[in-house]
UniProtKB/TrEMBL annotation:
Family annotation (PROSITE patterns): CRAL_TRIO (PS50191)
A UniProt-annotated Pfam family: CRAL_TRIO_2
Source lineage: Eukaryota, Metazoa, Chordata, Craniata, Vertebrata
GO molecular function list: phosphatidylinositol-3,4-bisphosphate binding; phosphatidylinositol-3,5-bisphosphate binding; phosphatidylinositol-3-phosphate binding; phosphatidylinositol-4,5-bisphosphate binding; phosphatidylinositol-4-phosphate binding; phosphatidylinositol-5-phosphate binding
Keywords: Repeat
SUPFAM superfamilies per record: Spectrin repeat
Similarity field: Belongs to the SOLO family.
The CRAL-TRIO domain, residue ranges: 1-135
Protein name according to UniProt: SESD1 protein
Domain of life according to the entry: Eukaryota
PANTHER family reported in the protein's UniProt record: SEC14 DOMAIN AND SPECTRIN REPEAT-CONTAINING PROTEIN 1 (PTHR46607:SF1)
């Protein structure tokens, strides 16, 4: 960094005790001499050969080598001799002898006398000067500068190639050029940072002093390096800015191409395998299980579509972001991609939704059909079981249950028709674009199946209705049969009650003829009521026979009701005849007795025939005898009228009247006895 009195640069060559390689020294000198500018080189060099630690022959070799390396630039060579004595004569003679041939002056000088030729401020401390110099620091800075210069120059070439390749040629050529040289060999940011740090260090050493506070002038190579570094940095910044724009454009184009590629992947899958999956799924199944299996298959298809729909959502967001921040030239292409992607995805989603709704409607249709089939099976099973109810109430309950089941079947069939019509409407609304092909044949199979199910259910329901009509008629007849049987049994009960009333309450014979006649008339009316009851019972039993024949069954109660009715009626008839006979006898008795008792004694001629008294006595005795005799039924059983006390009271009344008749007879006989005596 020092300069001689001619402003020439000072080159110091320190020699050491070890063997010095002349080749390496030559290379080093070439490198050092390449650093200064041509202007500096023109002022010449002062070379200081420090031979204090070396031998004379080495020093001589180095001096001679300077002739070959830098003969024109060297103006003075100062050989610093060691403290030990060299052969002055030899050394001086040799340098003096070779002066003309060398082209520069060589002087031998001790270190303390070097200031005679060079200013102390231009010498380092090793030679007694004050020039501050750190060789390792200079070496490190030089290595950094060399590395920066090499890297920046190479980077500038690469960036220029990339940038120039993107500015010319067709789009494909630009992309091909960018692809081949897209990534520089070194990081531009790192190189720029290194250059800035180097420039900052060079500028700092220019204005700051050394650690000792003494200001110093930077070396020419450092002054020369600053504009080189600044120029390289300016060029790097310019090329790097262009490179960033190229990368941005490339990144945008790459992103756009990736989006376009992904869009086409989504579109191709949805229009290819996705549509093919839906194209093969057109059936609706013929049962609940089949529809559920199709639904499960459809869910698997939806799951596969969901993955692509997720990609669609992501792509749509990316496209929207690019549209918000994109260039005008990309808007048309981005909008076209977005529209194409949306159209395909929405169309496919509509197909999936339509298919799902169709399968759900089919499942509901088959569910209603299965429920209706089970209801029809239950109704048919109920109709196939023979009716064997215990009474009319159970028949009414069964008939009510039958009507409820039939009503439930009607509602089920109505629901099936509604579900079927809804399903048919969905199928009819299915257009050919729904699956990408003509679905008329497949739809016809589905329509035929739906209509077949509804027609089959209608026929089954009609058959059940016909059977219900027959069963209803049969059950109504059975209700009528039970009613007739109940009423016939009731008639028997009524007739039995009339018989019981006849025996227990119809016991009076009257106190006179008039009262007895009234009792006889009442009895005839009583008999008419019994006759009507008996006839009603007979009619009911005849109706049960007809109903049993119609129902082809044997009545459980009419078999013993008719004998009971006939038995009670015969008992009633026998009892009624006995009652009539007694009343008629009583009428005859009271009439004759009243006639005799009402005759006046002054008319004895009326009693000339005493046989009337005998007759009335015979009638009275006969009546008294009948009162003590029970009623004998055809089956041999006996039954008395009233209680013994009741019969005794009636008999006493007859005896009293017979006594009156007897007294009357005696009264009539007394005049006959007195007349002959007179």
């Amino acid at each position: 960094g020092g300069k001689d009195r001619r402003s020439g640069l000072i080159l110091t060559i320190p020699l050491c005790l070890e063997q010095t390689s002349m080749d390496e020294l030559s290379v080093t000198l070439d490198y050092l001499l390449s650093i200064p500018s041509e202007k500096c080189k023109a002022r010449g060099f002062t070379v200081i050969v420090d031979g204090r630690k070396s031998q004379w022959n080495v020093v001589k070799t180095v001096v001679l080598m300077l002739q070959n390396v830098v003969p024109a630039e060297v103006s003075l060579v100062c050989v610093v001799k060691p403290d030990e004595f060299w052969d002055k004569k030899v050394t001086h003679f040799c340098f003096w002898k070779e002066k003309d041939r060398l082209g520069f002056e060589v002087i031998l000088v001790s270190a303390n006398k070097l200031t005679r030729y060079i200013e102390p401020c231009q010498l380092t401390e090793d030679f007694g000067g004050t020039l501050t110099y750190d060789h390792m620091d200079w070496l490190n800075k030089r290595l950094v500068f060399e590395k920066f210069t090499k890297e920046s120059t190479s980077l500038l070439d690469e960036l220029a190639l990339i940038n120039n390749g993107s500015d010319k040629g067709t789009q494909q050529e630009r992309e091909r050029s960018i692809d081949l040289n897209f990534l520089p060999s070194v990081d531009p940011e790192t190189v720029l940072q290194t250059g800035h740090e180097l420039l900052s260090e060079l500028q700092q050493r220019r204005f700051n002093g050394s650690d000792g506070g003494v200001s110093w002038s930077p070396m020419d190579d450092e002054l020369l390096a600053q504009p080189q570094v600044m120029k390289l940095l300016d060029s790097l910044r310019e090329q790097y800015t262009r490179y960033q724009e190229v990368c941005r454009q490339r990144s945008k184009r790459t992103q756009l191409e990736e989006i376009q590629q992904k869009v086409m992947q989504v579109v191709n899958w949805l229009e290819g395998p996705g549509s093919e999956q839906l194209r093969t799924q057109w059936g609706i199944g013929d049962s609940i299980r089949a529809s559920q299996a199709l639904q499960q298959k459809h869910e698997e298809i939806e799951s596969q579509h969901s993955e692509w729909f997720a990609v669609y959502v992501e792509l749509n967001q990316q496209i929207a972001a690019l549209l918000n921040a994109g260039d005008e030239e990309d808007l048309v292409e981005l909008k076209a991609l977005q529209q194409q992607l949306s159209d395909v995805c929405y169309r496919q989603a509509s197909q999936l939704e339509f298919r799902q709704n169709l399968l759900q409607a089919a499942l509901e249709f088959h569910s209603v059909a299965q429920d209706l089939s089970q209801q029809l099976d239950g109704l048919l099973g109920m109709l196939c079981v023979d009716v064997a109810p215990a009474d009319g109430a159970s028949i009414q309950q069964t008939l009510k249950l039958l009507e409820e089941k039939l009503k439930s079947v009607d509602l089920g069939l109505q629901g099936l028709r509604e579900k079927g019509q809804s399903l048919l409407d969905q199928i009819s609304n299915q257009a050919s674009w729904a699956y990408g092909k003509d679905v008329t044949i497949e739809n016809k199979e589905n329509v035929d199946h739906i209509q077949g199910v509804m027609e089959d259910m209608q026929l089954r329901k009609q058959r059940c209705e016909d059977m219900v009509d027959v069963r209803r008629l049969k059950m109504l007849q059975m209700v009528q049969l039970f009613k007739c049987e109940e009423d016939a049994a009731q008639a028997v009960e009524w007739l039995s009650e009339l018989l019981d009333a006849l025996l227990k309450t119809h016991i009076r014979l009257g106190d006179d003829a008039q009262e007895t006649k009234v009792l006889l008339e009442k009895h005839r009316k009583f008999v008419d009521v019994a006759q009507s009851t008996y006839d009603y019972g007979r009619q009911l039993l005849q109706a049960t026979v007809v109903l049993c024949q119609s129902l082809r069954c044997t009545s459980r109660s009419s078999g013993d009701t008719l004998p009971r009715l006939n038995r009670v009626w015969k008992q009633f008839t026998v009892t009624s005849e006995e009652r009539v006979h007694r009343l008629e006898t009583a009428v005859a008795f009271h009439s004759t007795a009243e006639k005799i008792l009402q005759e006046c004694p002054e008319q004895p001629e009326a009693f000339n025939e005493m046989d009337q008294f005998d007759e009335i006595e015979a009638v009275g005795k006969s009546l008294l005898d009948r009162l003590t005799v029970p009623v004998v039924y055809p089956d041999g059983s006996e039954q008395y009228f009233g209680s013994p006390s009741d019969m005794a009271s009636a008999a006493e009344h007859i005896r009293e009247k017979m006594k009156l008749v007897s007294l009357k007879k005696q009264q009539l006989r007394q005049p006959e006895a007195t007349t002959p005596e007179s």
